[in-house]
Amino acid sequence: MTDYKIIQTINGPEDVKKLSMEQLEELASEIREALFNRLTKIGGHFGPNFGMVEAEIAMHYVFSSPKDKFVFDVSHQSYPHKILTGRKNGYISDEHFSEDSGYTNPEESEHDFFNVGHTSTSVSLATGLVKARDIKGDKENIIAIIGDGSLSGGEALEGLNVAGSEINSNLIIIVNDNEQSIAEVHGGMYKNLAELRETGGTASNNLFKAFGLDYIYEENGNDIASLISLFRKVKDTDHPIVVHIHTQKGKGYEIAEKDKEGWHWCMPFDRETGKPTISFGDGEDYTSITAEYIMQKAKSDSEFLVITPAMPGSAGLNKEQRKELGLQYVDVGIAEEQAVAMASGAAKNGAKPLVVTNTTFIQRAYDQISHDVCINNSSVTILLNYNSFDSLTDVTHLGIFGLAAYTNVPNLVVLAPTSKDEYLAMLDWSVDQKEHPVMILIPGNQVTYREADKDFNRLNHFKVEEAGEKVAILALGDFYQRGEQLSAKIKAELGFTPTLINPRFASGIDKELLESLSERHQMVITMEDGILSGGFGEKIASFYGSSDMKVKNYGLDKKFYDRYDPNELLKEVGMTPVQIIADICNQIK
Amino acid sequence: MTDYKIIQTINGPEDVKKLSMEQLEELASEIREALFNRLTKIGGHFGPNFGMVEAEIAMHYVFSSPKDKFVFDVSHQSYPHKILTGRKNGYISDEHFSEDSGYTNPEESEHDFFNVGHTSTSVSLATGLVKARDIKGDKENIIAIIGDGSLSGGEALEGLNVAGSEINSNLIIIVNDNEQSIAEVHGGMYKNLAELRETGGTASNNLFKAFGLDYIYEENGNDIASLISLFRKVKDTDHPIVVHIHTQKGKGYEIAEKDKEGWHWCMPFDRETGKPTISFGDGEDYTSITAEYIMQKAKSDSEFLVITPAMPGSAGLNKEQRKELGLQYVDVGIAEEQAVAMASGAAKNGAKPLVVTNTTFIQRAYDQISHDVCINNSSVTILLNYNSFDSLTDVTHLGIFGLAAYTNVPNLVVLAPTSKDEYLAMLDWSVDQKEHPVMILIPGNQVTYREADKDFNRLNHFKVEEAGEKVAILALGDFYQRGEQLSAKIKAELGFTPTLINPRFASGIDKELLESLSERHQMVITMEDGILSGGFGEKIASFYGSSDMKVKNYGLDKKFYDRYDPNELLKEVGMTPVQIIADICNQIK
User: Fold this and answer.
1) Quick check: A182 pLDDT over 80?
2) Which residue of A118, A162, A532 is the best one to mutate when testing the B interface, meaning the one whose CB has the most B CBs within 10 A?
3) Chain mean position to CA A303
4) Among the four A190, A450, B369, B542, which has the fewest Cβ within 10 Å?
5) What is the DSSP string of A433-461?
């Protein structure tokens, strides 16, 4: 049992400033113990935090938060900062774990300024703090922390460019260079960072200087004394300066130091062995199905090309598989705009590109999907993982906005598969056809097995899985199984067989079929895995607006939910079978 | 009358290759004459094309399009290329003007690969062409043309970064450096470009080299012989190389050379004087109203801050006004992500930021609106111009997707004003409040004058402008006047007074009011200036889905319309008063 002698005395940054150098070193090891305590038990971001312990101690030693303002990029590296700003209990005291989110969070502390979870945001957000400070005539230090692969995102580069000319006052940009992204880094700038590391910051063609920024380098990014001296040098600077520090991702845990990609993020694990202490059963999942499809397709079709913005894990691709794919695989680094535009170009020159990432991140390429791909009808397939209310529940990583964002983009065919067979059929069809941009929403539920029609050429053709009467259930994508359950309950409790429909296409409506439902049905129910606003069901409601058909849309509210219980949420929005049956009884006679 | 001796012989790039150096020079002046012919009569992009005449001649002289592939950025600088690739008639023959769009267009010619109109896309699109070429084992040259301010966009920077490491084959990036964006350039990189120009390309901290790219400089960007020799040097290169050429925006027309911003784009004009030959009447427009509001607000409120991504014209701000705004104005250059994120930061540090641009461009910051602003409930006001079917009709610049894109983002209050008074009241309210992110859609119709309620604190509170019976018309934003016309026609022809509602809020619904309509109404009509899919009306239809109220949504189809006649389009979607009255007669008894 660790006794956290120093941590126990830290209730805020002012307590950090009281410590001797020796005590600061001791604090660093206690912080790593505290991180182990939380991460072995509930998991979280490992490597980014272990690498930044010393830097965050030195930051709080030199600067005066919250007057001086730290803006963390992604903010998955902010755990030591949280421990130092009154939130130690979320790390050393198990019953308090749930009080701290995995990201910075202004509702938790005045030392946090933004809820963030997407990369490449900190410089741009910090320039805004700077601009407001300057028009108010204030004088505090504004410090952006960025790194861990996120420099390659367009927003960060736009931010550096603007900081390099439009800001003429204090702005400190700490570049946490751990030689790594989630997976390995990609992009010419990383050759530049390597040259800078090798030359102690003196290499020519310095990227930051090219953007008009002042620059300073520190090799010992895990040495508190060096960092304190460094930060003292730049404190109260009167112009923007980049502080490039070389840190070691995962420092302090040998297993993580050796496998940086594997330990970017961790499940609960055993500290001795590094092995996860929970498991998800042995059955296959959609990620492994995706990886298998990709490897087979690449072998059999030399035009097939996989592009990912730093998220090979979304497709279950491990290092060996990525290597095996060779020329048919491109990781563009954290750069969603580039990934989508590149895919459009590749399609126009005869390749069959598949872009893979998470739903929450692809919104960074909204314009590229609309303008670069869809206006041009480029036959790009965009494959999205974690597109469900039932996957990631952090407010910054929700997968519930995809239907609203993309089903309204012209020309884009959004497909929502309901089983393994249908998922693979959709992939096959989409990758091989040359007429349409397609988005496929990987189901968020357990893998289910049902045979599927394999032809999707007739766009927006919904499939009637069971013909019935009175009530028609349109259950979209991974909510199809909920539709099945509802159907069974209606049969059992209400004594009739409803019609069960698998829409397959989320981006259009089957007018002919909907028209024909009017004959034997009084009510249409839609069920979808996302917010209702702008999604699938509202299109159905609009279609029937001037008819006698009653329509009830089931889905989530337009809301940034945060760390919720998925089952409770379904109850909250009235979507359990019991609640829906009650609604039906109110409607049909 | 120009006789276009050389141009008449050019039916494709092969004819350019046959010319002597003297004839190429003559061709350049004939192209300028052809540009004058089109631009004096129908307007278009002036400066970008006049500056690139020599470069595009040299490109077609050295490379072999369409085997070698040119990808123009924005493609507003592609007119000389069009003249040289079989489309001269669109410039020299007035009756053929309409055959050529103002941008590259694959439907027009095999020499064009993409429909583009947004900036910063060419490098990323070109890397895709490269990747497909490489997996197919082909060998052609791929040439991206970028410049005119668009290097600062995130997509372009992501593209340069990826080109600098992930492409190991032929890719030529021509940087057209005319020292200018639409307005003046902003961003540290432009200091770097200036240093490179001043040193003949030898300055240290070369931005392109920092991204890992090879680099070559040419000072004489308007000299055909120098350019031919330059392009021959890089033709068939086996690696990515940046070819930095220094050109003069507007070259060949003294008035444009002197006023680069004013002549980026032009209305039809008189060549002698440079004065526009058409005018829009003397009345005020929403752009001048916006500029006036901004100047007054800035004077009276030191926390007010205007941020624009290179589109000061969207707010009607001229050079003198921008200067007068001083610290309270930031042009971040073409960098929508930065603009929106910066605004979020500024709001969090106590400023009152107003972001101004066009609807079609703000979609480049979709993630920043959602993640950086709305999750954080930053009190940012985003003000959008050209948000109407009746403004820009080029497929790449449509203003009809804003409602679908933004009314479904949680926390964002989307306001649709219906008159000058209401517009100003909404601006006042939004800028001063500290609770919500707000988007205001500047009306796309003529300025109208009606007094408005000034309180918007009760979100989603619709305003009943006239209470009536049987039919309720919800006419959103600049379609409110169409609602008034419809109401008048119903009174005259159907003999009853319908209820006329000004929703004001596009992003939510007034449940209480909608509920209350059930008493005296059988039908609700929604009218909106945009596509129906994902927009305002569908939310109303969903609300009434299980009631007896009939709902009919009027708006545009989910489609990339291109260069249409706005009045014809309204007929096509059944939205004229005559058509709506017929629908009503079918519904109500």
Assistant:
1) no
2) A162
3) 29
4) A450
5) -SS--EEEE--SS------------STT-
State whether A132 and A198 are in the same domain: yes
For chain A, the average pLDDT equals 96
Are the C-beta atoms of A11 and A86 separated by less than 8 Å? yes
Question: Taking CA atoms, what residue in A is nearest to B405?
Answer: A405
Q: Which residues contact B498 (CB under 8 A, 6 or more apart)?
A: B468, B469, B470, B471, B472, B473, B486, B487, B490, B491
Domain with A551, as residue range(s), is: 463-587
DSSP letter at B546 equals T
Residue B589 pLDDT more than 90? Answer: no
CA distances from B17 to A80, A149, B12, B65, B66 (A): 65, 46, 9, 11, 14
Judged by CB atoms closer than 8 Å, whether chains meet at A210 and B206 is answered as yes
| Neighboring chain A residues of B374 at a CB cutoff of 8 Å | 560
The 3-state secondary structure of A275-315 reads CECCCCCCCCCHHHHHHHHHHHHHHHCCCEEEEECCCHHHH
* Cβ neighbourhood burial of B420 (10 Å; 0-12, 13-18, 19+): middle
A18 CB-near residues (< 8 Å, 6+ apart): none
CA distances to A60, A63, A196, A244, B370 from A215, in Å = 21, 19, 11, 7, 32
| Strand blocks (E) in A393-504 | 413-415, 438-441, 463-466, 470-475, 499-502
Here the CATH number for the domain that contains residue A472 is 3.40.50.920
Per-residue pLDDT, A256:
96
pLDDT digits (tens, 9 = 90+) for A283-303: 799 999 999 999 999 999 999
Over residues A15-57, the pLDDT tens digits come to 999 999 999 999 999 999 999 999 999 999 999 999 999 999 9
Contact A546 B551 (CB under 8 A): yes
Residues B103/B97, Cβ–Cβ less than 8 Å: no
Q: Domain total for chain A?
A: 3
Assign residue B227 the CATH number of its domain. 3.40.50.970
Cα dist from A108 to A69, A105, A113, A115, whole Å: 15, 5, 10, 10
Looking at the fold, whether B76 and B217 belong to one and the same domain comes out as yes
Q: Of A115, A204, A350, which has the smallest distance from its Cβ to B132's Cβ?
A: A350
Query: Does B451 fall in a domain?
Result: no
| CA B50 – CA B32 distance, rounded (Å) | 7
Residues 6+ apart with CB under 8 A from A323: none
Strands (DSSP E) along B205-358, which ranges? 214-218, 240-246, 265-266, 304-308, 329-331, 352-358
Start-end of H helices in B85-223: 89-92, 122-136, 154-166, 188-198, 207-210
> Which among A192, A523, A560 has CB closest to B411?
A560
Q: State the residue for tokens 């009314």.
A: B407
Residue A85 near residue A96 (C-beta atoms within 8 A): no
Inter-chain CB proximity B158 and A154 less than 8 Å: yes
Please report, for residues A5, B75, B268, B326, the alpha-carbon distance to residue B141 in angstroms, rounded to integers and kept in the order given.
65, 19, 37, 46
B163 contacts on A by Cβ (under 8 Å) = 188
pLDDT (mean) for B15-29: 98
Assess whether B364 and B475 both reside in one domain: no
First to last CA, chain B: 66
* Contact across the interface for B367 and A118, Cβ inside 8 Å: yes
Q: What is the pLDDT of residues B488-538, one digit of tens each?
A: 999 999 999 999 999 999 999 999 999 999 999 999 999 999 999 999 999
**Rounded Cα distance, A179 and B246, in Å:** 36
ipTM of the complex: 0.97
Contact A206, B209 (CB under 8 A): no
pLDDT band at residue A181, thresholds of 50, 70 and 90? confident
Nearest to A121 among B113, B188, B372 (CB): B372
